[in-house]
Design brief:
The structure is a single chain. The chain has helices spanning 15-19, 34-44, 98-108, 122-139, 146-161, 169-174, 196-211, 239-252, 275-285, and strands spanning 69-77, 83-93, 187-190, 215-219, 264-267. It has 3 domains: 1-45, no CATH class; 63-174, no CATH class; 187-285, no CATH class. The termini are far apart. Helix 4 (122-139) packs antiparallel against helix 5 (146-161) and helix 7 (196-211) packs parallel to helix 8 (239-252). The protein has 286 residues and is α/β, with parallel strands linked by helices.
Length: 286
Amino acid sequence: MRGKHVDASGDRTSDAMEARGANFVSTPGAQPSLNAVVSSRRKAKAPKGVTVPRHFSTEGIDPLEAVEWERRTAIISGENGEAIFEQADCEIPAGWSQLAANVVVSKYFRGHLNTAERESSVKQLIGRVVGRIYEWGVESDYFRTPADGDAFQAELTHLIVNQRMAFNSPVWFNIGVRDAPQQASACFINSVDDTMESIMDLAKTEAMLFKGGSGTGSNLSRIRSSRETLAGGGTASGPVSFMKGFDSFAGVVKSGGKTRRAAKMVILNVDHPDIREFIRCKTDEE
């Protein structure tokens, strides 16, 4: 009955309804509700979260128990051959080189040396980092099912313990460490304005990033040149002068509290009036 509408009394609709192109038959109690249609569409949507297939791990098998382990002493020697770091009885995967063991134990094991809180096994290190990342994934509903979360944790553990991948240093320094900033990025780009407040804020920001084990890069082109005057009289110091102060902070703050120094990059646009001094400053300093 194309173009016709039959109501409960059997009467036909007016020509106006037909002119609008009505194309349905109405039976009392047979019309679907709008709420039912919307609800049905919602149920048809795919569940949220990622699915994590297993490529390297096997369900029910801990990747840390699938490799052979051995006890070693990690030693870092100075230029004169004397040990500047040593930690004995460390649990290391048997397939790892002694160099890998020395670096991981000396740089990434957390806790004060010769104390009970000090990490003594790569199992603890991997468990701390991977466990915290897994917890974040669960808390944020990243995984479609609990099994996907387990697969993610196992796959990531396998990749690390078998040296198929490695995180950057800030991840090992900070992630999963109580009361430590969960700072994971290795590099930060900062900005600065042509005010003393902003310049000093940059010094503090960089120092705190160095403390967390990260490096920084800053473009100082907004700072007026040493050829320009100040509002209160006198001549501006210029970006190269402030660079000396920033460089001093970078030199005294240990990156991540470890023995390495901070990594720092400074940029100055080629059209800045002090660009010649900037180009020569490192050579002049050395």
